[in-house]
Amino acid sequence: MDKYRVKPEEKIRLKDWDPDETDSFDGGKDEGRERLQELNRELESLQELLYAEHKHKVLIVLQGMDTSGKDGVIRHVFEGVNPQGVRVANFKVPTPEELDHDYLWRVHRQTPAKGEIVIFNRSHYEDVLVVRVHGLVAEEVWKRRFAHINDFERMLAEEGTLILKFFLHIDAEEQKKRLQARLDDPTKHWKFNVGDLKERARWADYMQAYEDVLNKTSTEFAPWYIVPSNKKWYRNLVIASVLVDALKGLKMQFPQPKEDLSQVVIE
């Protein structure tokens, strides 16, 4: 799965990355789903170990266009994990209180504690994406933020946070199909937002903004992965594989008991 990792200083163009690709798994959809269940079980055990060891922190960032599957990733990749050690943070339009502070203030408050996995469903990157595309701040302001974000993530990493960032890559035609499916199904109408069509009209602007994000903020300590996401099963498989491998790389151990238990007898 390392092929999807954006190397530091690498200059990527999203048009060169195929959102339909499933090359890293040749077993097909059914076998892919079986493998995901295996990874779910591994993740469940690793998350318990992370919580028990109480040493590392894990931050997962999910970004992508509307319908790219951020909610689906949370639902399927993290199926079965203990809710006590996993938390989802959503970043919507800033509140008046949040606007009174710097743009990273509300983000830092949501970062993980020791033993915790936190999933950002959208993130601090909205402040170099939406605000840029909609012209909410001047160009010189959002351009400065790339350096701010790199410094912020470096600090988190140096303080013991494992950071993994996933861009869920779909194409405009796939988004159209997913939006139409929501419109055609009355039980999905609650998901449909007419405002999403206005964002869709800015597709090219968003792709340029995402390219800059991927090129300027993928680092050794906080890498971006471009995840082919037209096929939902493959999207989930890629993210679960990267996450399980990264957690294994922490070489975690269950803590030793505080007392000698060898002579304990339960009557």
UniProtKB/TrEMBL annotation:
**Pfam families, from UniProt?**
PPK2
Entry keyword Cytoplasm: no
What would be an example GO MF term here? Answer: polyphosphate kinase activity
Q: Name one GO biological process term.
A: polyphosphate metabolic process
Q: Which residues form the Polyphosphate kinase-2-related domain?
A: 29-253
Which keywords annotate this record?
Answer: Coiled coil, Kinase, Transferase
Q: Which residues form a coiled coil?
A: 29-56
Q: Which InterPro entries match?
A: P-loop_NTPase, Polyphosphate_phosphotransfera, PPK2-rel_1, PPK2-related
Q: What is this protein called?
A: Polyphosphate kinase
